[in-house]
Amino acid sequence: MSVQWQKSSFSGAGGENCVEVALAQPRLLLREGDNPGKVLAMAPRGLLALIRHLKSERQ
C-alpha cells in the first residue's frame, strides 16, 4: 500500500524530528519522522479525541 505522508506544520525546518500523517481509508496513519517504521493507525475520531485531550492537558 502506497500512502502519501504529510509532515506536521509544527515540525519546523529540522526535518527528521517531526510527526507525519497519511490517509489510508478508513484510517489515518501516524508516524515519527525519526522512526518511520513504527506506524499508528487510528480512526479519524480517535485522532480528534487524542488532539483534544492533549490540548486540554496543556492548559
Percent of residues in β-strands: 35-45%
| Number of helical segments with 4 or more residues | 1
SS-based structural class?
A: alpha+beta
Average residue pLDDT: 85
Rg computed from alpha carbons, rounded to a whole number of angstroms? 12 Å
Question: Termini distance?
Answer: 39 Å
Helical fraction: 25-40%
Low-confidence stretches: none
Oligomer: single chain
Which geometry do the CA atoms define? flat
The profile of the biggest β sheet is: 4 strands, antiparallel
Order of SSEs = EEEEH
Order of strands across the widest beta sheet?
Answer: 1-2-3-4
Report the strand count.
Answer: 4
Walk me through this protein's architecture.
The protein has 59 residues and is of the alpha+beta class. The chain is 25% helix and 37% strand. The protein contains 1 helix and 4 strands. It has one helix at 44-58, and strands at 6-7, 19-24, 27-32, 35-42. A 4-stranded antiparallel β-sheet has the order 1-2-3-4. Strand 2 (19-24) and strand 3 (27-32) form a beta hairpin. The radius of gyration is 12 Å and the shape is flat. The termini are far apart. The model has no long low-confidence stretch (mean pLDDT 85).
